[in-house]
Design a protein that fits this description.
The complex is a heterodimer of chains A (101) and B (336).
Chain A lengths: L1 E7 L6 H16 L2 E8 L2 E3 L4 H6 L2 E6 L14 E4 L1 H6 L1 H11 L1
Helix pairs in contact in A: 1-4
Chain B lengths: L1 H32 L4 H14 L2 H14 L1 H16 L3 H20 L10 H38 L4 H16 L4 H15 L4 H23 L6 H5 L1 H9 L7 H6 L1 H21 L21 H22 L16
Helix pairs in contact in B: 1-2, 1-3, 3-4, 3-5, 4-5, 4-6, 5-6, 7-8, 7-9, 7-13, 8-9, 9-11, 9-13, 9-14, 13-14
Keywords (chain A): Kinase, Phosphoprotein, Phosphotransferase system, Sugar transport, Transferase, Transport
InterPro entries (chain A): Bacterial_PTS_Sugar_Transport, PTS_EIIB-like_sf, PTS_EIIB_2, PTS_EIIB_2/3, PTS_IIB_fruc
GO molecular function, one term (chain A): kinase activity
């Protein structure tokens, strides 16, 4: 299972990066591959490229704000949650996404 | 519906924050140097001008969130109307939503492909801004006097009223550690900040920082009552607290909610009330945390309120918790 994710929070300094850590840790635990792009106050970091997206089975958006370049994900399976969900229990976020697929 | 609206609002706030931080710091630096000196006076001017972008930014980026790129111009202009008509931040938020909505409606106008190019550069900006201007003018009729009233009421507030205001704001900020209640209190503080009333934001600071600081201190004072991961979380939580992030307190609240949430709510409230009563005012948003302390008015009063809140939280949680409350759960700790 290949997952790509985007995290974004209003201030763009903490939750964005905590959610990234959470998702990466959870994916490792569940044995999935993940790439997490952050859209914090620095703009886009660790950008999801077309080649990442090609391989991806699931797109997880852990976001509280509008994200940039959202049209990239058109036609993909998207699971959207508030950023806090990925901070508190990222394992559940990924499991829910997989169950919905 | 509510979630979508919240997302648009948060996008606006997200783009606005850097402007407010920069403007607030310039303004405060000017006040510290002295408004009578040439440098100080200029710094105050630059700060005030930067802060003047606050309402246009929130309106512009709410509109952007709703209607994408064409929404920016309409929203920014509407935000300027909101500020000039004296409706401040609240007016800016309302007109931002309107601007985004009207932009989306205008996008739908059918047009022949040969002249479609004029839609984004003529039709949407002109009609969008025109419609927003009418909307803004109409809502300013009731809203502007209401904002002036609120401003006067907050400005003349003193004594026990300030104590209550500080208590409520700090308690709300701490109560859900970054959740919706916290965001409502924060939005109120931004609204008053835009009107040049700085006391609520001071309470906001305490509500953000007292919980993570107090709980970290508690793990040091009562090491037997906290699990290994909770103790490991103490330094990250305190560091995050110092950067204006309450969420480091969450793992402690998850472990024993009833022994933590009421304590941080009331403890932060008391600290916030005391700080405001003693005259603390913060002209810069709490987003930059303790490092903004030098730019606060009456920084020692704010610090005193913060210390009182931290001490109350640290000891009360320490006394309420029992050693049997410990359970080690690897995932409970937030690593940062």
């Amino acid at each position: 299972m290949n997952i790509v994710a985007v995290t974004a929070c209003p201030a763009g300094v903490a939750h964005t990066y905590m959610a990234k850590k959470g998702l990466e840790k959870a994916a490792r635990k569940l044995g999935y591959k993940i790439k997490v792009e952050t859209q914090g106050s620095m703009g886009i970091e660790n950008k999801i490229e077309a080649k990442d997206l090609e391989k991806a089975d699931i797109v997880i958006l852990a976001v509280d704000t509008k994200i940039e370049k959202a049209s990239r994900f058109d036609g993909k399976f998207i699971h959207e949650v508030p950023v806090a969900a990925a901070v508190k229990n990222a394992v559940k976020v990924i499991e829910d996404a997989v169950a919905k697929l | 519906m509510w979630n979508k609206a919240k997302k648009h609002l948060m996008t606006g706030v997200s783009y606005m924050i850097p402007v407010v931080v920069a403007g607030g710091i310039l303004l405060s630096l000017g006040v510290i140097i002295g408004e009578k000196t040439a440098v100080g006076e200029q710094l105050v001017n630059f700060g005030v001008w930067t802060l003047g972008l606050m309402v246009p930014m929130i309106a512009g980026y709410i509109s952007y969130s709703i209607a994408d790129r064409p929404g920016i111009a309409v929203g920014l202009a509407s935000g300027v109307f909101a500020a000039e008509l004296g409706t401040g931040y609240i007016g800016g938020i309302l007109v931002g939503f309107f601007a985004g909505w009207i932009t989306n409606q205008l996008k739908k106008i059918p047009m022949h492909t040969n002249i479609a190019v004029i839609k984004p550069i003529m039709i949407i900006p002109v009609l969008g801004i025109g419609a927003s201007a009418i909307f803004m003018w109409l809502i300013s009729i009731p809203l502007a006097p209401a904002m002036t009233g609120l401003e006067n009421w907050l400005n003349t507030m003193s004594g026990s009223n300030l104590l209550i205001l500080g208590f409520i704001i700090s308690a709300m900020m701490a109560f859900d550690m970054g959740g919706p209640v916290n965001k409502i209190a924060l939005a109120f503080c931004y609204a008053t900040l835009a009107e040049g009333i700085y006391a609520p934001m001071a309470a906001c600071w305490i509500g953000i920082m007292a919980a993570p600081f107090g709980l970290s201190l508690s793990t040091l004072l009562f090491p037997k009552k906290f699990s290994k991961s909770e103790k490991g979380n103490a330094i990250p939580a305190a560091l995050m607290g110092s950067l204006g992030i309450t969420e480091g307190a969450i793992p402690y609240a998850v472990a024993t909610p009833l022994k933590v949430i009421p304590v941080i709510t009331i403890g932060s409230g008391i600290g916030g009330g005391i700080a405001l009563l003693l005259g603390a005012e913060a002209p810069i948003p709490a987003a930059i945390g303790i490092w903004g302390l030098p730019f606060v008015h009456s920084p020692f009063m704010l610090l005193l309120g913060l210390i009182i809140a931290v001490v109350i939280i640290a000891f009360t949680v320490g006394f309420l918790r029992k050693e049997s409350d410990i359970y080690d759960n690897e995932d409970a700790g937030l690593s940062f």
